[in-house]
Every structure is written in C-alpha cells, then in structure tokens.
Write a structure and sequence with these properties.
With 317 residues, the chain is an alpha/beta fold. It has 12 helices and 9 strands. Strand 3, helix 4 and strand 4 form a beta-alpha-beta unit.
Length: 317
C-alpha cells in the first residue's frame, strides 16, 4: 500500500538521491493524477494557494509546459520567468534571481540551467522547494521518472526488462536519470552508441550496465529502446564523422526494429531529429509510446509537486 509519508524530500534534484522505494512512491502517486485526465474538469484543489515559479535558462517546450499544466491542475498559481527579458540580462546572479522569487513567496522553483549543479546551489541558498528540470549534463529527474512510468504502465514491471538507451549518452542528462532509476528498479540496461558518445568509465558508476557499440547486437530481444536526441548544440567538437554516418550506424529504422521483440517499446524524450536518430516510420509506429510519454509527464510532475508539498503542508490527496 502506498505510504507517501516515506517520501521525506523537500527538493527533487536527481534520481541518484532517491531510494528504490521513493521512486516507486512517485510512480504510484502519479496513477490517480493521470485518471484526472479522463474527467471533464481536470483539476483538483490540492495546491490551492501555493505558487510555482518556472525559471528556465534554456529553451523548453515539453518540460516547461508540462510543469505549468501540472501546477495548474493542482490549482497552484504559476509564474514563468523569461530569462531573456529578465534582470539576468543586467547581470543578476542565479542566487539573487532565486532569492527574489523566494521573497515573493514562491513555494516551488522549477529550474532548468545549462550548468550542472545549479539546482543544488539553489537548494542550499533559498527556502523554496527546488525541482531540477534539467541541469547541464547531470540529470533530468522528471524525464527519467516519466520514462520509467511509461515503461511500467505498458509492460507491468521494470525488473528484468532489457532496456536499451541508444545514442548521444555523453551529453544526455535524460540518460543519467534513466540509468539511476532503471538500475535501482533492477532493469537490465544496455548503453549503445558511438564510442565517442559513451561517457568514459561509466561502468565504474553503473557496474551492472552493459555497453555495446554494435546497434544490432544491442537491440536483439530488447523490451524497450529509449532513443536519445543527438545534441548538436552541446557538442563542442565533432564526435562522429557525419550525420549521414551516424544515421547509417545508429539510426533506428523499420528494418532494425525487427531485431528487437515484436512488442518492443520505442521511447524518445523529444524533440526528435527525424531521419537522424529515428525515422518517421518508427516514430509513428504502433511500437512508439512517444506521445504517451508527454501525457505521462504531466501526471509525474503533479505527483512530484504534491509529494514535495507534504513537507510544508498537511494537504491530502
């Protein structure tokens, strides 16, 4: 039975810092929130009177909108901080910006930042609850949670599933959150990509994870393939010869899909580079749960906001 009292965190900084049980509590808490989506009025008064500030230093469509919808469906007030038109452009520091939001009584600050560790700095300097919406190459915990939620929803379990994380793992905070979450829930994780895009010595952090550079071998009998976007904007040097070669060697197409299990799930955190890491016929296939990931993201973020609020309020689900 779900015991939300065992979730004692004020902040969500990464799945590295959560136990297996705490991850499962978030997944279970998301289920009743997802049921709200079938109602004519998709809203509950759970966080009425609370405020959520969205502080994004990087572009975002899915994560920002998902957090905003999640907050509003919990009846919280939301404010979007557009960094390009804020005092950040006048030289205001990250901590001073956060302290300004704290002074305005923001209960939650959802932050996306290009520097790894930025959410941790805020958690040490302000009283608001901090939620990491992606920090540098470090983590993107709610994306990891929604990926795992989607897999469990479709497969009924996580333990012992063969989950392949494919592509630009070196630059992917999504991959790191998935790694922490999936390994704690005892999935069999395989990392696949060009050698230059696999983090050096990652097996020392995740000793039970398999690394395979051959795509066909990696996806054989796979239950899940989570395809990562090639992050051209983060690459400071050419780590593979050409986009064409990457697509030929590591792009997921219909023919390669046949190597995995017939009911393999195809995930992608978005946005997709169609024709590079994934072809349109795979992205839009019956195996694809990419749109379901987006839907589940709202439920997961509602669950996170609710659980974090329990440390400062007696609000009941």
């Amino acid at each position: 039975m779900l015991n939300v009292k065992k979730f004692n965190h004020k902040h969500l900084l990464g799945l590295e810092y959560l136990s297996k049980e705490e991850i499962e509590i978030i997944l279970e808490t998301a289920k009743p929130f997802k049921k709200l989506f079938t109602r004519s009025i998709k809203k509950v008064p759970t966080l009425r009177g609370r405020s959520v500030a969205l502080l994004f230093y990087e572009p975002s469509t899915r994560t920002r909108t998902s957090f905003e919808l999640a907050a509003k469906r919990l009846s919280a007030d939301t404010v979007n901080i557009t960094v390009q038109t804020s005092s950040v452009q006048k030289g205001e520091s990250l901590i001073d910006t956060a302290k300004t939001l704290e002074a305005m009584k923001a209960d939650f600050i959802v932050i996306r930042h290009f520097y790894s560790g930025a959410p941790h700095i805020l958690a040490q300097n302000v009283s608001s609850s901090i939620i990491n919406a992606g920090d540098g190459f470090h983590e993107h915990p709610t994306q990891g949670l929604l990926d795992i939620f989607t897999i469990k929803e479709k497969k009924g379990k996580i333990k012992d599933l063969k989950v392949v994380i494919l592509g630009d793992i070196l630059h992917s905070r999504v991959a790191r959150s998935n790694l922490w979450g999936l390994t704690k829930l005892q999935a069999n994780v395989v990392l696949c990509g060009p050698p230059t895009l696999i983090p050096p010595e990652i097996e020392k952090i995740f000793p039970n994870v398999e690394i395979e550079y051959n795509l066909e071998k990696a996806i054989k009998n796979a239950d899940v393939i989570n395809i990562l976007r090639v992050q051209f904007e983060r690459q400071l040097e050419h780590l593979f010869p050409s986009v064409r070669e990457y697509s030929l060697l590591y792009g997921m197409n219909k023919e390669r899909l046949k190597i995995a299990k017939d009911d393999v799930l195809i995930l992608h955190p978005g946005p997709m580079n169609r024709g590079i890491e994934i072809t349109t016929d795979v992205a839009d296939s019956l195996n694809s749960v990419i749109n379901q990931q987006v839907t589940n993201g709202v439920a997961i973020r509602m669950a996170v906001l609710y659980l974090l609020s329990l440390n400062t309020t007696s609000t009941k689900l």
